[in-house]
Amino acid sequence: MKIIKLNLVVVLILLTAASCDNVLESRVSELERRVAKLENGGNTATTTLNTTPTTTTTIPAGPEIKPEGPLPEFSFSSETFDFGTISEGEIVEHTFSFINTGEAPLIIQSASASCGCTVPSYSKEPVPVGGTGEIAVRFNSKGKKGNQAPTITVTANTYPKVRKLRLKGTVNAAG
């Protein structure tokens, strides 16, 4: 088991160093969660793994538990935006608009993209019940070719806490 764990750590370090892509990071987290579950005999209690001498990764204790009381809720007209086909180097901007259809003010805690080519910005003020908010996204296709599908991960005081928004399209090579 220790050899498997050591091999997994080496693979995790290489994957993490190879890319800043959050897709890989989520896969690494999932692998860490599975290893922790195996080491704990199927128990999903929180486990901490040292992935490098200076980095510690904490694995969540299991599924998210719905909080009691009134909660805010996102209502997007669409969670995916297809930008079609563009030429490499073009910039695509899109705004995901939402309504808080819940029963409490909605507060976005963070919005992050799966790669550095996509930059989200969002409403910083609490969105009242029935109010509207926006998550603006800017995708830079420089250095990107082929099918693209960056993901924007939005964390808020909703249930579930995380919501995924997606851009998709094709980038043709320049010139």
Layout of SSEs?
Layout (H helix, E strand, L loop, with lengths): L1 H17 L3 H18 L7 E6 L2 E5 L14 E3 L3 E8 L3 E10 L7 E6 L4 E5 L9 E9 L5 E3 L2 E6 L5 E11 L3
Parallel strand pairs: 4-11
Antiparallel strand pairs: 1-2, 3-5, 5-8, 6-10, 7-8, 9-11, 10-11
Helix pairs in contact: 1-2
Give an overview in words.
The chain is an alpha+beta fold and 175 residues long. It has 2 domains: 2-59, no CATH class; 74-172, Immunoglobulin-like. It has helices at 2-18, 22-39; strands at residues 47-52, 55-59, 74-76, 80-87, 91-100, 108-113, 118-122, 132-140, 146-148, 151-156, 162-172. The strands form 3 sheets. Strands 4, 6, 9, 10 and 11 form a 5-stranded mixed sheet that branches. A 4-stranded antiparallel sheet has the order 3-5-8-7, with no helix packed on it. The chain has a two-stranded antiparallel ribbon with strand order 1-2. Strand 10 and strand 11 form a beta hairpin. Helix 1 (2-18) packs antiparallel against helix 2 (22-39). The chain is globular and about 55 Å long. The N and C termini lie far apart (52 Å). The model is unreliable at 6-21 and 43-56 (pLDDT under 50).
